[in-house]
Amino acid sequence: MRMRLSDEARDFLRNEARYLKPRSPSAARRLVETVGEARRRLSSFPLMGAGDAHALVPGSRRLVIGDYVMTYEIIKDVIAITSIRHGRMAPNMPEIDDDFDFEA
């Protein structure tokens, strides 16, 4: 299957590697290698990530790769990686207006 990385996921990966590199070049290299290996495995086994019943996007899946969580969707013959985050980070939540009516 083809693989597509969202701008958000690409930016996170670049920024995380840039953060790690001066502190531990080997950790930065491992991060990039681990994500690359996860992408290769996903292209062969797209259902290997766990489905998430509480996901903001129905049908999205999560794959834990070391200390990181990759969220992706399968859209026809494309695996769309929507986000990558450190496992200690809270998942992205939609912005809700202060005057949003929860009962409506």
What's the topology here?
Blueprint: E1 2-5, H1 7-23, H2 25-44, E2 50-51, E3 61-65, E4 68-75, E5 78-86
Parallel strand pairs: 1-5
Antiparallel strand pairs: 2-3, 3-4, 4-5
Helix pairs in contact: 1-2
Number of strands: 5
Residues in helices, as a percent range: 25-40%
CATH class: Alpha Beta
Q: What string gives the helices and strands in order?
A: EHHEEEE
What's the architecture, going by CATH? 2-Layer Sandwich
Low-pLDDT parts are: none
* Fraction in beta strands: 25-35%
CATH topology: YaeB-like fold
Q: How do the strands of the widest beta sheet line up side by side?
A: 1-5-4-3-2
State the CATH superfamily name: RelE-like
The end-to-end span amounts to 41 Å
Number of domains: 1
Largest sheet: 5 strands, mixed
Total count of helical runs of at least 4 residues: 2
Specify the structural class: alpha+beta
How much is the radius of gyration in Å?
15 Å
